[in-house]
Amino acid sequence: MSLRIVVCVKYVPDATGDRRFTEDLVTDRESVDGLLSELDEYAVEQALQIAGSADDAEVTVVTMGPADATDALRKALSMGADKAVHVEDDDLVGTDAPGTSLVLARAIEKTGYDLVVCGMASTDGTMGVLPAMLAERLGVPQVTLLSEVSVADGLVTGRRDGDTASEQLQAALPAVVSVTDQSGEARYPSFKGIMAAKKKPVETLDLEDLEIDAAEAGLEGAWTTVEEAVERPARTKGEVVEDEGEGEGAKQLAGFLADRKFI
């Protein structure tokens, strides 16, 4: 039986752009260019490596987002994924992590899966909670923050590296895993892969297809809200401390730290 691997990816605002909030205090995804979250590229890469080691495997990428999120799916398809699922619905604007986990879980169940692979976090929200929420929604084990992952004999095995030690973790399939940016560099799409991606199937679903009420998603169904957002202050010119060799510079630095209660 084919190993069904689903990779969750996200279309995010370019971190080098001028990212802002809209008047509704949700991320403005229209005034800045978007792209496939860099951390999700590692998830796609690991899924492709697992598929390459299996006798028979299929990799499906799933995303939730606006029409332009298809660009993120096409990037993953050009890397080597087989097909894609795009959940798009106007009522999804402002959906938080719990709502996103509900939508993606329903889409994953509809697609069918043995293994779900996620990045460690998205580069816009950087919350890192979605893999755990997905596992809870799907009712399967989670093995998260892996630097190394493999699948064999119905088990997913991985290594989680901490500051002082590494853990070897294992779970029975079906399961959800997340991988870190230490899991291995993501491949660059080849010209052949880019051309092939244009012909690969992309299924579009909405909330009705997933049997989710609009009140369970979007701003209306959000468990969390942003109450206020202010722009970060512009950087100011620093103060140069000069010392003629008499130790005055050290005294000035000590006074600076003391005034700000650092010492």
TrEMBL record:
Gene3D superfamilies according to UniProt: HUPs
Q: What is the organism of origin for this protein?
A: Streptomyces aidingensis
Q: Which named protein is this?
A: Electron transfer flavoprotein subunit beta
Could you tell me which residue ranges the Electron transfer flavoprotein alpha/beta-subunit N-terminal domain spans?
24-214
CC annotations in GO: cytosol
Q: What InterPro entries does UniProt report for this protein, alphabetically?
A: ETF_a/b_N, ETF_b, ETF_beta_N, Rossmann-like_a/b/a_fold
**Reported cofactor(s):** FAD
- UniProt KW keywords: Electron transport, Transport
Keyword hit for Lipid metabolism = no
Task: Give the quaternary structure.
Answer: Heterodimer of an alpha and a beta subunit.
What family is this? Belongs to the ETF beta-subunit/FixA family.
Relate the protein's function as given in its record.
Answer: The electron transfer flavoprotein serves as a specific electron acceptor for other dehydrogenases. It transfers the electrons to the main respiratory chain via ETF-ubiquinone oxidoreductase (ETF dehydrogenase).
